[in-house]
Write a structure and sequence with these properties.
This protein is mainly α and 74 residues long. Helices cover 78% and strands 0% of the residues.
């Protein structure tokens, strides 16, 4: 029961992500001089996606290793 509550709590915390601006200083300076902010928002989204992919891959590999070791014990 404790493990189920922990998983649900972790899932809910991951769903409550705060919006962030992930630009380097040079990108921000170039994009702020532009009239429309559509390009800046697109750059922000791209940077966040590029940042998230390695964490998702490492988490998936970690889960597969965890599952493999737990099935060997049973």
């Amino acid at each position: 029961m404790f493990k189920f509550k922990t998983v649900i709590l972790l899932f809910l915390l991951l769903m409550l992500a705060l919006p962030v601006d992930a630009q380097c200083a040079m990108c921000r300076a170039v994009l702020e001089s532009e009239q429309g902010q559509g390009t800046a928002e697109g750059i922000n989204d791209g940077i966040v996606y590029l940042m998230a992919i390695p964490y998702i891959l490492i988490g998936g590999v970690g889960y597969l290793i965890y599952r493999k070791f737990n099935t060997l014990k049973k």
